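hiii so my PI (J.) wants the whole complex modelled not just the main chain, which honestly fair. so below is everything: two entries, each one labled with what it is. i double checked the lines twice but i was tired so who knows lol
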Amino acid sequence: MRAINNISIRHKLTLIIMIISTVTLVIASFAFLTSDRLYSQKNVSDSLGIMADMIAANSAAAILFGDPAAASETLGFLKLQNNIEAGVIYDVDNGIFAIYHKPGMSAQLPDPGPRAENVMFRGNYVELFSDIIYQGEKIGVVYLRSDMRSIHDRLVWFLGIVAAVLLVSLLVAYSLSAQMQHIITAPLFRLSAIARRISTEKNYSLRAGGEGRDELGSLIVDFNIMLEEIQARDEKLKTHQEELEARVAQRTRELERANLELASSKEQAESVAKRMQFHAHHDSLTGLPNRVLLNDRIKTELAHARREQSILALLFLDLDRFKIINDSLGHATGDQLLRIISRRVKDCVREGDTVARLGGDEFMVLLPRIASASDAGRISNKIIDSLTEPVSCNGHDLHITTSVGISIYPFDGTDAETLVRNADISMYRAKELGRNKAVYYTAELNAGSRKQLVLETNLRKALERNELKLFYQPKIDIALNTIVGVEALLRWQRPGMGYISPKDFIPIAEESGLITPIGEWVLHTAFRQLREWHDAGFTDLTMAVNLSSVQLARTGFENILESALVDSGINPALAELEVTENVAMKNMESAAATLYKLKKMGVSIAMDDFGTGYSSLGYLRSLPIDTVKIDQSFVRDIPDNMEDVLIAQAIIAMASSLNMALVVEGIETVRQLNFFKQQGCRIVQGYLFSKPVEAEAILDMLRAQTVPGTINLIRQ
Amino acid sequence: MHYGLTHPTPSPVPAERHACRVCHRLLLLLLTLLLSWLPATCPAGDTEQTEYRIKAAFLYNFARFVTWPDIPAGQFTLCVFGDDPIDEQLDTLLNKTVHERRLRIVHLNSLAMIGECQLVYVGRSYTHNLPEVISLLREQPVLTVSDIDGFITSGGIIGFRLIDNKVRFEINTGAAGTAGLSISSKLLTLATTISSGE
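here's the output for the full assembly
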């Protein structure tokens, strides 16, 4: 089929015509030959029938009168028939009556008995039986046999003719189709020639010529319509293109003009953009890079450091007490101070280092490519030193110090976030260590700060969840052997974690400011508890409550105390506030002022942990102290440690001379008790008598008027 | 049925027929013994019997090849004059039809009834009356047949002859024409002699 598809239409048409004529002729010839054969056979059988009839008619009398010679004469005319091979007349008993056969033929004669057909074609010959009937009576049978050679000859002859006709017809059909296929192919060739010309010349105005209303005619018409559309589109395209070109030219001119305008405005824009970018990345006050730019630089330098395997340091600077300056001298002074400080810091570092202001009084210094970690410490100290010089600002000479936290890549972190955080932690540590210091980051710092954060979070919740509880440790008058008062001690009972020491959580409470609500709660609770005991009949019992330095420093503490006193309705003289030596030392003037105010309200003041600080006696005298408590750190090794014995004796002497009451804490052994007894001390507290216990236990002790486990010992 | 007395090629005979022929032979033997005892009136009875059987058949066939101008409806009358051996063989013709009429066989000893006959066979015993019969039947549409020698020359129409022991016949077409009968040419071709004289 593919082979046919590949040949040209011209040849296809010829082929089709040839095939059709061949098929037609073959069918026609076959029909003709078949009909001719049938006709010939009928002819033969008809002529045989006529002959048989003739023989029957002419031999009837001979049969009836038993005259075979006459019958043989009748058969004699068969000699003239070329195709007759044999003729036989049978009598009524099927006996041979007369016989003829062609010379040289000795045919086997058939039995003329009952038979299906009178005429039988048997390939090479045809035979016929015909009854001889005379006046309705069958008197014999005629048998004739004719060869078919003539019919075969005739068939062969006809086949020859058919073959010749077929050949001639094919030749004629071929030559005719060669001529007539032009009728179909010529317009197609013309069409394809036009199409080819159009595609090479791109001339869409060409048209295919053609007449006729057949399929080819309509194809040509459709082709021309298509060409017209293409031409129309082509022209439209051309106009569009021209318009477009004109427009492009105009736009180009406009653009050139606009470009000139732009060139000038671009310069402006660029400077604006530069400024914008600068503002986006720099602190407007100091002109230092801000946090954004710093983070960028840290990342860049980290990448360098990683590649070069160099060391990089981050310094976190926080000015000490800057807030006080800002609050007291005003923002303008603060701002100026910050500008001067940033200049100084910048002067301390190399060209490629970055000094950034993170906001407020926080600065960050990025030191890339330092030789060793100690370089960071050196530069930190340089900065601290340079800032220590008084700053002359708006007529004030300001003394400013700074705390510096140092983190080093790659030791303290490998990414910007960790390094910044660790520098921050170190800075806080520096503050804790007394400010005006530089502190390297250590892993412990990190752990501590993390623990702190967790505690702080939980502490906030502790108040709400009533996890805070007050325990009370009795103070014993060893002369009278009675409980004269109690000290309230705060405990934090975390579910599933037991008690947490105040040493651990009070600093956090102080830092986070939680100390205020906690302290308030402590005062209220302790005073209410005291009131309960007073109501129970122990009206002389005193209650000591510890105050934190932060608590004391806060303005408005007097109000809190006042409300606690009023709320409980206790006699203020029975309330005692314990402050540590350090509390009093930190802000001497303000602390003293506050303590006087409190004293005025009727409460007594005790100095806790006396002896641990470095307070001068003179200073101590200036404070409204009623009682001093000897710190248990001196008590522990008494009476074996001579030094502690001397200190204790000195304190006891001092208290006595200053006319202050004295309380000894942390009495755990009988020997300790005996020592202080000998020194004339009356009021003691410690595990020897009772550890801090819950309010109910205190009530039991009061009621029993006994101090558990002590009486016997005292008697000793 | 065999027309030839001596057929050269014996056709296949069915077994029963063969058995019958044995019966015939036995019968013939008995008959011969009987006849040899009897006065020899009929010295060659067997041959004569066959000959007359054939002649009887011929009589019937003659009637079929001859056309009569007028035949009374209902029957065709075959008349036999005189005592003749053919009488015994005519029984085979009973119940046959000729020209669509029933064949009737009548024995005549006088000429009185001769007007009813279409075919007249004149036996040898009637030889003496032959001229009277011929003259009586001249111009009558009656076919006359006889085995008397010189019958057709005496004015008869068909005469039997024995040639080579075979029954043949001769025809006088003139007499037939006078009688108003037409004889089929097929019959004529079989005749040994055809004469047209009166």
